[in-house]
Amino acid sequence: MTAAFVTIFLMGFTGSLHCAGMCGPIVWMVPFQQYSGVKKYTTIVLYHLGRSTAYALMASVLFSFKSLFHPQVQQYISIALGCLLLLAGLLSFFSIKGWGIKTPWGDWVKRNLSRVMQQMSIPSFILTGFLNGLLPCGLVYMALAASMSFADLPSVILGMYLFGMGTMPLLIAISVLQTRVPMSFLHKVKNAVPILLFLFGSILIVRGMNLGIPYLSPKLEMHQNEVKAECCHHPE
């Protein structure tokens, strides 16, 4: 379990470059610079707390349906998500316009996100982060798929908060160094997004192939109506 927590944290940490390219412009527009000192850093932390809470909420809802799916179906879902990320990376690499991951709530979130960001109250920073966390993101969906391997709801929630924490260092640096980091830097970072999408898509596909690779693609088997995951090699 500890290894799983470390893995999902590192997933967020290594994927934060993707976050900087896709969500960096949004973080850039959040009015952290209107404050200074402790209050400024408090608003930054609250923003990322709200974002991580959105991830934990989505994972909680998804986990509530876990019992409806046979483990083999969950593997097919992992492979399908991986293929979608590979396709997204391909479309992004060729700069094809009009593509993107769509969700039923996406337009509503965008409308309210712009409205909430204009407010200057402390709670608005939490809500801004929460709404940002609901925006479509392949990296987040990969983390959600990974979180379904946890045994219980508290572990799922903790795992998604750890994932959010992993993405924080780079995004906080963008907020703190906003006046020193040109917007062109974010555009350059965004050029790396197709590579990351290919990487994450490949990981999801491998994870769903039941190859018995420790932690990356654990072999799932049914034993007396219970799922047994062989994630580690047994000593001979």
What structural class is derived from the secondary structure elements?
Answer: mainly alpha
Q: How many angstroms does the end-to-end distance come to?
A: 23 Å
- Count of domain modules: 1
Secondary-structure element order, N to C: HHHHHHHHHHHEE
Hey, roughly how much beta strand do the residues contain?
under 5%
The parts where pLDDT drops under 50 for at least 5 residues are 222-228, 232-236
Any idea what the shape is? globular
The largest sheet, given as strand count, sense and whether it forms a barrel, is: 2 strands, antiparallel
The value of Rg in angstroms is: 19 Å
Mean pLDDT: 75
The helical percent reads 55-70%
Number of discrete helical segments: 11
Number of strands: 2
Cross-sheet strand order for the largest sheet: 1-2
Explain the overall architecture:
The chain has 236 residues and is mainly alpha-helical. It has one domain. 67% of the residues lie in helices and 4% in strands. It is built from 11 helices and 2 strands, in the order αααααααααααββ. The protein has a two-stranded antiparallel sheet. Strand 1 (219-223) and strand 2 (226-230) form a beta hairpin. Helix 1 (2-14) packs parallel to helix 9 (153-176) and helix 8 (138-147) packs parallel to helix 11 (193-207). Residues 222-228 and 232-236 have low confidence and may be disordered.
Which tags fit this structure?
about 5% strand, two-stranded antiparallel ribbon, 2 strands, about 240 residues, globular, mainly alpha
Write a brief caption for the model:
With 236 residues, the protein is mainly alpha-helical.
